[in-house]
Design a protein that fits this description.
single chain, 231 residues, alpha+beta, 4-stranded mixed beta sheet
C-alpha cells in the first residue's frame, strides 16, 4: 500500500512527488491559495478533484509533455492558421475561457472538475500574472480557447474547449509557437491523450519530467498579461 499524504497548513510543503500511488494520487487536503498552487506546479504536482470531494493532488507517472520545438501541425490545421480562420489572442477573456471549459460536456465525465473554488483560484493566479488564456475568435465571437499556468520556462496546460471545429487546436498551436519564440522549453500536458500525441507530445517517466521541470523553472517567469507576438 502506498500512503496518500494529508497536507499541513504550510502552503509550500508537499510530499516528494515520487511517492505518489500507481494512479498518480499523492496528497489530499490543503487549500487552493495562490501560494500553494505555485508550490505544487513548481514541484510537478497539480490539483484535480470533483465537486463533493476533498482537494486531491496528483503527480502521474508517466507524464505527457511537449517540447515546443517538437510541435507537429497537420496540413489541414496549418491551412486554417494560414487562412486566418480564427483570430487568436492572449489574456483578453480569461474568465470566459475557464468558465466555458467548466461548462463543456466531455465524453465519460458526469460533471466538471473545474469547481467554483477552482474558478476563483485560477482567476487569482491570472490576476497575479501567472495563469493565462489563449482565445480563438471568429467574426467577433469567442469560439474556443485554453488556459494554463506559467512558471519559469514551463507552461502547464489545464483545459481547453471548442465551440467551432479546430478552434482550440489553432489556439494551442499558436500558443506553442509563441512559447518557442519566447524561449520556453516545456509544455506539461499532464496525462496522455491521442489528441495531444498528434501534436508531438510524448510520455516520459516521472523522474525525467521532474528533472526537466527543475531546470525549466529556474528560468525567469514571463509574468503579467501576455500578448501575442508570433504571426
Amino acid at each position: 500500500m502506498v500512503p496518500v499524504f494529508g497536507l499541513t497548513d504550510d502552503a509550500g510543503l508537499f510530499p516528494d512527488p515520487q511517492l505518489a500511488d500507481a494512479d498518480g494520487l499523492l496528497a489530499v487536503g490543503g487549500d487552493l491559495s495562490a501560494e500553494r498552487l505555485v508550490a505544487a506546479y513548481a514541484a510537478g504536482i497539480f490539483p484535480w478533484f470533483e465537486k463533493g470531494q476533498p482537494i486531491l493532488w496528483w503527480s502521474p507517472n508517466p507524464r505527457m509533455v511537449l517540447q515546443p520545438a517538437a510541435l507537429h501541425v497537420s496540413r489541414s490545421l496549418a491551412k486554417a492558421i494560414r487562412l486566418g480562420v480564427f483570430e487568436v489572442q492572449f489574456d483578453t477573456a480569461f474568465a470566459r475561457v475557464i468558465q466555458r471549459c467548466s461548462e463543456k460536456r466531455r465524453p465519460g465525465q458526469r460533471g466538471t472538475w473545474i469547481t467554483p473554488d477552482m474558478l476563483r483560484a485560477y482567476q487569482r493566479l491570472h490576476e497575479l500574472g501567472l495563469a493565462h488564456s489563449v482565445e480563438a475568435w471568429h467574426e467577433g465571437e469567442l469560439v474556443g480557447g485554453l488556459y494554463g499556468v506559467s512558471l519559469g520556462g514551463a507552461f502547464f496546460g489545464e483545459s481547453m474547449y471548442a465551440d467551432a471545429p479546430d478552434a482550440s487546436k489553432v489556439a494551442f498551436v499558436i500558443l506553442v509557437q509563441q512559447l518557442q519564440a519566447w524561449g520556453m522549453d516545456l509544455v506539461d500536458c499532464q496525462v496522455a491523450t491521442s489528441h495531444l500525441a498528434r501534436f508531438g507530445a510524448v510520455e516520459v517517466p516521472r523522474g525525467e519530467f521532474l528533472e526537466r521541470l527543475r531546470q525549466s523553472i529556474e528560468r525567469p517567469t514571463k509574468q503579467g498579461r501576455w500578448q501575442r507576438e508570433v504571426v
